[in-house]
Amino acid sequence: MSNGPKHPAFVLVRPQMGENIGAAARGMWNFGLDRMRVVAPRDGWPSQKAIAMASGAGRLLDLAGHFDTVPEAIGDCHFTFATTARSRELTKPVYSPEAAMQLAAQKIAQGERVSVLFGPERSGLENEDVAHANAIITVPVNPEFPSLNLAQCVLLTAYEFRRASTEVVDMVERGARSERAEAIEVEKLAEHYEMRLQEAGFFYPPEKAEGMKINLRNLWSRMPMTRMDVQMFHGMLRQIIRHWDKG
After folding, report:
1. Are the C-beta atoms of residues 15 and 26 closer than 8 Å to each other?
2. What structural domains does the chain harbor?
3. CA 149, CA 139: separation in Å to the nearest integer?
4. Second label for 68, Cα 20 to 30 Å away, from 75, 111, 142, 243?
């Protein structure tokens, strides 16, 4: 069980615009990450533009570490990733954001401290920066337009760490009356329609009737109906019958 930080440290290396630092803080806090470190920001520190852009995530800037060099910023970490869109001559393992953050979550669970380097907006990380990292994260972007905004890259990586460290439900049905119908309820609905359609002479000619009934049953079973749906279909049929009985 880990007694250390539960999240990776996101290290912004020589960021050029305070607005991007603030936007990066917002992206981190959107996904519950609060360990920001800033290395040699171009416009100094603290940055009023970063504070204004951070909005509700201003506490990350208040707690952020300020460092002069990359080695100082990652000195207490056991493992560091470097984000880059460019191919490098340096020999290092290269991960997708998803795989990298899965590995980060595993290492953090084992008590290790992990950091992720993000480069300046104009040029990204230098080889000298990347040399301090243990592995590289590369996003599968459009090769004709590979550059990601600093805050976008931070947001994407934070999202992947959230997915790797928190149980995420990929699909859920929501609504006031979204309880799924039980098989017996769908069966009774099928019987109701089959009976009324039989009375109306729908299953014709007789030699095809059985196949038509099977197809109708198959239709009901394919539909992911809620109890509300079943009740509505019953009501629709009853109302149609009442209308024609009056006629």
Report:
1. no
2. 9-165 (3.40.1280.10), 183-246 (no CATH)
3. 12
4. 111
The SS3 assignment for 37 reads strand
Tokens representing residue 68 in the block: 């002069």
Rounded Cα–Cα distance for residues 85 and 130 (Å): 12
- The pTM for the full model equals 0.71
Q: Which helix (H) or strand (E) holds 207?
A: none
Sheet holding 36-39, edge to edge: 65-67, 36-39, 9-13, 114-118, 79-83, 135-137, 94-95
Beta bridge partners of 11: 37, 117
How far, CA to CA in Å, does 4 sit from each of 67, 128, 184?
A: 21, 28, 52
pLDDT in tens, 155-205: 999 999 999 988 767 776 666 566 888 899 999 999 999 999 998 899 999
